[in-house]
Amino acid sequence: MTKPLAVPVDEDHVRSRRRSIKDTMLGLAFLGPSAVIFTAFFFYPLYRLVWLGLHQQNRTGTRERWVGFSQYADTLTSADFLDGVRISATYVLYTVPLGLVLGVLLAVVADRKLRGIKVFQTIFASTVASSVAVASVIFFVLINPQVGYFGDVSFLSLSDPGSALRGVALSSVWQNLGLTFIIVLAGLQAIPAEINEAATLDGYGPFRRFWRITIPLISPSLMFLVVVLTVFAFQAYAQVDILTGGGPAGATETLVWKIFSDKEPSQYGEGAVMASGLFVITLGVTLAQFRILEKRVHYGA
Fold first, then answer.
1. In the chain, where are the structural domains located?
2. How far apart are CA 108 and CA 104, in angstroms?
3. What's the Cα-to-Cα distance from 249 to each of 98, 103, 246, rounded to whole Å?
4. What's the angle, vertex CA 234, arms to CA 232 and CA 235, rounded to 5?
5. How many CB atoms lie within 10 A of CB 123?
6. Tens-digit pLDDT profile for residues 147-191
7. Could you tell me the maximum CA-CA distance found in the chain, to the nearest angstrom?
8. Can you give the pLDDT at residue 252?
9. Which CATH number applies to 70-296: 2.40.110.10, 3.90.650.10, 1.10.3720.10, 3.40.30.10?
10. What are the tens digits of pLDDT across the range 231-252?
């Protein structure tokens, strides 16, 4: 009786397979903590948000009744939600362009090799350490119609429905100015001096160097700031609550303020639907910004 022939073992293949399994397990071990954190603080809350939107609570919030997507349809098409979206979008337009322009100008001014310039850089960046509450209280003292030092400035009056949102937006611009300044200044300081020197030798003046050299090279930082400042603006709540309380006449009721203010237990489902709508809007605007701005971003030095 003949013995079966032994199949030769490919040692290299075995070692490669073991190494692949080991690398996979190591990768999963590294991803494990992040997966747990994302599940606990993002995926599960998002699931609960959608779940609450599909149910209607009783007056005490102790029982839920399934209503399906009808609550989504009713809430997302209501005048209250659409008005909140309009006010939030206006708030974005007030804060993001102005904050970005001021931050760039301050960074350009402070990007100098002068004695004592670090003092001015520290002053310009100091607002990054201020909380929303601190910034709001400062501007409450400055532009409050009754007790503010500049309360009679009609353009920023918190008592006028036509200007109150601008006054609230100004506090956000001031508070986020330090962050914008730091990031833009870091981008400016990362530009090699040889590039500006070569542009000067080619006959580029200061303004032409700024638009043709500086702006393209710091465009990744600018894109990041546009996205971050937009998200911050859509999440505005504390400024509104401290400065105007949503008034006057509902002129400063941003979408986040509508979600959290004066919600009875029976309105938790409605608030969850609004929050879901805000999430989709913020995600859509962010993706659109990446798609539009990334084509104009220059990553090479």
1. 14-53, 70-296
2. 6
3. 26, 32, 8
4. 65
5. 13
6. 777 877 788 888 888 999 999 999 999 999 999 999 999 999 888
7. 110
8. 94
9. 1.10.3720.10
10. 999 999 999 999 998 888 889 9
pLDDT at 146: 81
Report which residue type is found at 255: L
- What's the pTM value of the predicted model, to 2 decimals? 0.86
Nearest residue to 104 (alpha-carbon basis) of 273, 223, 235: 223
Name the CA dihedral angle for 246, 248, 254, 257, rounded to a multiple of 10 degrees. Answer: 10
For tokens 């349809």, name the residue.
73
Answer whether 221's CB lies under 8 Å from 295's CB: no
- Torsion sign over Cα 7, 9, 13, 14: positive
Dihedral angle computed from the Cα positions of residues 207, 209, 210 and 214, in that order, rounded to the nearest 10 degrees = 180
Average per-residue pLDDT for the chain:
87
